[in-house]
Amino acid sequence: xxxxxxxxxxxxxxxxxxxxxxxxxxxxxxxxxxxxxxxxxxxxxxxxxxxxxxxxxxxxxxxxxxxxxxxxxxxxxxxxxxxxxxxxxxxxxxxxxxxxxxxxxxxxxxxxxxxxxxxxxxxxxxxxxxxxxxxxxxxxxxxxxxxxxxxxxxxxxxxxxxxxxxxxxxxxxxxxxxxxxxxxxxxxxxxxxxxxxxxxxxxxxxxxxxxxxxxxxxxxxxxxxxxxxxxxxxxxxxxxxxxxxxxxxxxxxxxxxxxxxxxxxxxxxxxxxxxxxxxxxxxxxxxxxxxxxxxxxxxxxxxxxxxxxxxxxxxxxxxxxxxxxxxxxxxxxxxxxxxxxxxxxx
Length: 346
Description:
Number of domains: 3
Shape: globular
Strand content: under 5%
Number of strands: 0
Distance between the termini: 36 Å
Low-confidence stretches: none
Largest sheet: none
Order of helices and strands: HHHHHHHHHHHHH
Radius of gyration: 20 Å
Number of helices: 13
Mean pLDDT: 94
Structural class: mainly alpha
C-alpha cells in the first residue's frame, strides 16, 4: 500500500509541476502592480491586492517546483539507478537546460529586451552572457547549478544531520555571497534553492516522514501566518526586525514549498487531469511555455496599461501569454532541430 501511494505521488508530480509553472505565468501577469518590474512603464492604475498576491505567490511557486525536482531526482537516482555517472548526467542537463538558455536568449529574450529597455552591450554581457540577471531564464541556470551540486554531494545527503547542515550552510552562502558578490551564472541563487531540492529528496527517501502526517490545512495556515508576519515586519528598518523578517521569510519559503507540494498532490487526486486534453498540452509544454511567456506579458502591459482596470489587465496578460507561448511551443515541436534547441526529447 505504501509503495502504491508513493508511486501515485510520483505520477502526480507532473500535475504539481505543471500547476506551479502556470502559477509562475500568472505571477508574472500580476507582478507589474508591485511597482518595480518594468522601469520605463509606470503603473497607472494601482492595485494593492495584486501587489500583495504577487509577493505571496513568490514565496512558494519556484521553491515548490525545486522541491518536486528533488523528489523526482531521488526516485531516478536511487530507485531507478539512473544518473550513476557524472559526465553523462551533466551532458543531459546541458542539453535540457543550457542549450535552451542559449537558444531562447539569442532569438527571443535579448532582442526583445534590447528593443523595449534599450539595453547596452554591457547590460547584455552582464545579464545574459554572465547570467547575472537573465530575465526568466535564470531558472535554467539555477537548476543546472543545483543538479551539479547535488550529484556531487548526493551520497552524503543520506545522513539526515549532514543534509540539514548542508542546507543551512547553503542558504547562508547564498544570502551572504549574493549580497556581496555578482550572481554570475546564478550561482548564489542556486545555493538559495539547494535546500528545497534536498527537502524534496528527503520527502521521496523517507516514506514515513512526519510531514506526510501533517494535515494540509495546517501547512496552509502556517504559511499564511508566516507571510502575514513577514508583511508586518518588512517595513521596519531596524536590525532586529530585518533579522526576524529574514528568518520568517525563509521559513515561509519552506512551508510554502511543502504547502504547494501536498496541496497540489491532494488536488491531483480530486481532478481527472490526465483526461483533460488542454491540461495535457500544458503539462507537455509547460517548461517551453515558461521560456517564452514573459516577453509576451511585457507587450500586453505596454499595450493596455491605463486603458482597463488592473484585474482585467492581469487576466489579459495571463491568457494572451499562455495562448501565444503555447502556439510558439506547438510550432517549435514540429521540427526536430527546434525540439532539441528548447530541450525537448527528440
